Amino acid sequence: MHKNNLIIGFDDPILITGSNGFIGSRVVETLLRSGFSNLRCFVRPSSNLTHLQGTLATAQKARVEMIHGNLLSREDCTKAAKDVKVVFHLAAGIEKTFPGSFMNSVVTTRNLLDAVVRLGTLQRFVNVSSFAIYSNWNIAGGGLLDETCELESRPVERADAYTFAKLKQDQLVLEYAQKYGVPYVILRPGAVYGPGAHHITARVGIDTFGVFFHLGGSNQIPLTYVDNCAEAIVLAGLKSGVDGEVFNVVDNDLPSSRQFLRMYKRHGHRFKSIYIPYWLFYSFCWLWENYSRWSEGQLPPVFNRRRCATYWKGNRYSNQKLKDRVGWRPTVSFSEASRRYFEYVRKTS
Amino acid sequence: MLRVAVVGCGKIADQHAEQIAHIPGCEIVGVCDREELMAKQLQERLNVPTRFAEVQDLLDKARPDVVHITSPPQSHYPVGKLCLEAGCHVYVEKPFTVNLAEAEELISLAEYKNLKLTVGHNAQFSHAANRMRKLVAEGYLGGPPLHLESYYCYDLGDPGYAKALLGDRDHWVRMLPGGLLQNTVSHGISKIAEFLNGDVPDVVAYGFTSPLLRSIGETELVDELRVIIHDGIATAYFTFSSQMRPSLHQIRLYGPKNGLVVDDDQETVIRVRGSRYKSYLEQFVPPWDYAKQYIVDSLGNVRKFLRADFQTGHGMRVLIQSFYRSITDGLPLPIPYKEILRTSRIMEEIFSQLSSAPNTIRIGHREKVPVGQS
Fold it and tell me: What is the pLDDT of residue A240?
């Protein structure tokens, strides 16, 4: 990373929320490796910090401050954001309920944005969003899904609290950019995988009914290896000239769902799966959706056509914008990334 | 058409809104939360015409007939009072109020204003609870219950709630006089209160912090509670546990002739015969009888499911519906005020005993000192 291309110096303070999380801890690692020496890691008081502390132990020259707090507290946000030049906002509320997810994603983001507006030192707010907020409802199967595509307009129908909260979080960042001129960059990672996350992405299939239903078939899976994703976040967050941009994060050489599942079973963890074609599962979702409505919510509408399309219709994905504008290249190839991931899966199964 | 408003737009508000949406003859006309973003998200999702940050604005502008208070318990009394003074009927989420004095004042005000008031003890209106009530009314127990056992457990393994509560030293649940217990035990206590007679029952409480919570550094929350209650005629045991498995939600009633075991999780009501069979038949016949009852209950549950009468929020819907009917048709309240006050009184006594010996609470299980007598 050359300092001429960056919006801040290597000694400027950087705040990372969600710094103990799966991606957050890799962002901290990437920042330290890139020579940034003034980090502030925001963590929940109840967090198990073993992994993060291990990362910090490798960079003893850097000044890393741990802030234990809750982003729902305005005081904690002010304390965390004091003097910072860049905020990497990775903390997210992954909860089943709409209010829970909303509160821990949107209210927290508002508190943080209010703090940076009040303090006035911020040069960029790096909002880590999600691929889940796109809608492919009007894109044909196999069509390209990139940064220009429409966002989900009916998140409540999708019955997906996380998507709803992430959509609102993105809207809030845009609102603060317009109202208060908060400089921002939004990153929307695809399915992030790597050591530390054992589960197989829902875009391949689900095991809700006790058996793994393989639903992805020949679809391309928008994977991004956690280290590649963290590098993309750091680069896009610090590179000059990309304010107000949105970047999708997916790796090169994306495998199909079938290929990935086969590799997972062969090299990671063996289990039985049943392939369900898209049209069949889509019909099932249609039935479920209608039954849910007829029975007045006796079964919640968790299987519905909009969600089915988002995850299993199948699209193509691009990382061209990230490459062109930020100069990012995935440093870990798919073969190496999958080797590391499956090794982790094998060891932890 | 009843005009309904919801104050407090957190998780429980969603459950209220979902049930209200399925009740004919009512509509949500406004939502209110001091955190404007929370009010906005609920308004958007439910397509409600108005939202407010201040309760007074909601009352003045949306002019509801009924207000559901689903904000944290500390606000139940002031918000309830405001709503009653504005001429609204009020449904208060559990726990009813923070203390007995507030409960008494709210009920007096409702009576004075000739308005209706209820509390969200919806577990008393599950399919199983309704069947139990019918059997008791028909005299199956052979008279009023002589002894009751209520189990109300809470699995702190639930990541959403536990993470928020354990990770946040300023969480509103910690600020309640009874802490975690106050926010959870009222369902189990109210089931006992329904069958007691005396207004001031004797209470002996014993509580402590579970070894699991202590092992993660938690020193303030009491998550294990055992209580003995006696109203002069009937006795009751109440158990709250975050650790025991299965995590029961059960009430057992024993009368002069027979008993009942009511399980809210499995939605079963098992009749327990008081008389014994001769000799070895006592070991042979009753198990068959229980098996038959479980099969019948299981088939009954399947039948209800097929008829789409088995929603998770069924109890809440029945309670809300009964409350609305008491307003529109002048029917009796689903939960008598005496019962609400009895629940409040028992809870206040429990928390008073626990707080009078804070050190004993936390190490009580080692010292074997009942808190109420220390």
Answer: 95
- Could you say which residues from 107 to 126 on chain A have a Cβ atom under 8 Å away from some Cβ of chain B? 107, 110
Amino acid in the structure at residue B219: T
Question: Hey, what are A88's tokens?
Answer: 């990497």
C-alpha to C-alpha distance for A276 and A217, rounded to whole angstroms:
8
CA distance linking residue B166 with residue B357, whole number of Å: 22
Whether the model pTM is above 0.90: yes
How far CA B175 is from CA of B73, B220, B225, B359, in Å, comes to 10, 11, 18, 18
Structural domain boundaries, residue A184: 3-194+222-251+316-335
At A166, which CATH number? 3.40.50.720
The nearest CA of chain B is from the CA of A244 a distance in Å of 24
pLDDT more than 70, % of chain B: 93
Could you tell me if B111 and B48 lie in one domain?
yes
Query: What is the residue type of B223?
Result: D
Name the nearest CA neighbour of A145 among A200, A227, A220, A244.
A220
Tokens of B284: 């042979």
**pLDDT band of B162, cuts 50, 70, 90:** low
**Cβ proximity of A276 and A213 under 8 Å:** yes
Q: Which of B14, B22, B37 to mutate to test the interface with A (most CBs of A within 10 A)?
A: B37
User: What is the distance between the alpha carbons of residues B83 and B71, in angstroms, rounded to a whole number?
Assistant: 13
Q: Identify whether A215 is part of a domain.
A: no
As a three-state string, the secondary structure of B238-288 is EEEECCCCCCCEEEEEECCCCEEEEECCCCEEEEECCCCCCCCHHHHHHHH
> Rounded to an integer, what distance in angstroms lies between the CA atom of residue A229 and that of residue A216?
22
Q: Is A287 exposed, middle or buried (0-12, 13-18, 19+ CB in 10 A)?
A: exposed
User: Residue A163 is encoded by which pair of tokens?
Assistant: 């998507």
pLDDT of residue B163: 65
Residue B234's φ and ψ, nearest 5 degrees, are -100, 150
ipTM for the complex?
0.93
Interface of B with A in 149-188 (CB under 8 A): 160, 163, 166-170
Question: A298 contacts in B (CB within 8 Å)?
Answer: 305, 308, 310-311
CATH code for the domain of B136? 3.30.360.10
Distance of alpha carbon B59 from alpha carbon B85, whole angstroms: 10
- CB distance from B303 to chain A under 8 Å? no
Determine contact, residues A247/A185, Cβ cutoff 8 Å. yes
Cα A334 to chain centroid distance, Å, stands at 19
Q: Is B20 on the interface with A (CB under 8 A)?
A: no
- A219, A191, B38, A297: CA torsion to nearest 10: 40
Residues of B whose CB is below 8 A from A100: 11, 160
Helices A50-57 and A24-33 sit at what angle, rounded to 10 degrees?
0
User: Please, are residues B13 and B42 in contact by the beta-carbon 8 Å criterion?
Assistant: yes
Residue B240 belongs to some domain of the structure: yes
- Domain total of chain A: 1
pLDDT tens, residue by residue, A176-194: 999 999 999 999 999 999 9
Task: Report the alpha-carbon distance of residue B73 to residue A340 in Å, rounded.
Answer: 49
Domain assignment present for A10: yes
Do B296 and B175 belong to one domain? yes
CA distance A326 to A240: 9
Work out how many CB contacts closer than 8 A connect A with B.
64
